[in-house]
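ugh ok fine here u go
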Amino acid sequence: MIDPTNVLPYRVTDRNLALELVRVTEAAAIASDRWTGRGLKNDADGAAVQAMRAAFDTVAIDGVVTIGEGEMDEAPMLYIGEKVGSGGPAMDIAVDPLEGTNLCAKSLPNAITVVALAERGKFLHAPDIYMEKIVVGPDLPDDVVNLDSSIEENLRNLAKAKNRDVSDLVLCTLDRERHEELIARARQAGARVQLLSDGDVAAAIATCIDGGGVDLYAGSGGAPEGVLAAAAIRCMNGQMQGRLLFEDDAQRERAREMADGKDPTRLLGLHDMAAGHVLFSATGVTTGSLLRGVERISPTRAKTHSIVMRSKSGTVRYIESHHDFSLKTNRPS
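structure:
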């Protein structure tokens, strides 16, 4: 018989933490929503950062930011190495207070606020450089795609695993000049290509969601966003590989300093980027394929839509929250 005194406290704390994360991403989403469509991406991001940082003060963790807004001398808060939380289990924190600042500024789909937690030392320490990524969803053979394989081979293998034609597959990637060859070759192979202006975390997650409309995410984007995506993909039992890309020796040296003696150019699997037990939360700012955006019901009331996940249980929850600001003091959630 299981002794509940050995299990219950951890489980309750862990489950409560998952819900506390939703409050953090909700606060950032509500704050940045006030800047939606105003063309001021830095103001929107700044509002999200301040709200998220304040919300962390009430979360019962001993947290250290490992993926954040930049180095200490580049960001006033949520910088790499900053300690947050009100005390509790030692956790690493990965944040993107506003994933898709341009999307928010232009009122385009898929702007979200994102937080992930892992046990101390379990997140890849990724500098703010590019990462090459490839992502597919769950229930597929191991290594069905590989970052070192051609896009044609990956599409063929994925189509075979899904018992579909390549022409049925949708590849999603950022609409960037550096992806022109990838896009042309995928189309020549017969796949359809969905282009993003910004925001590849939501696109990576879409590969793992029924009705997400994406079979394969590929291409290069931010390394910090890669770690956040890896945390979500871990929770959803998908597959992901990554590799850091360097523009100069300074970036390579910075990555080497953060790599704990490992080769910074190595092929990264999911557990290299987000190991151990992982929690993930995101709240929609603008409505997109993953989440609905913040809905302003009245000057004092709003509705938010979030997703929260735990790798330990594989549970994915969608949470709709109704906020009455007239009853709140100091913070919006």
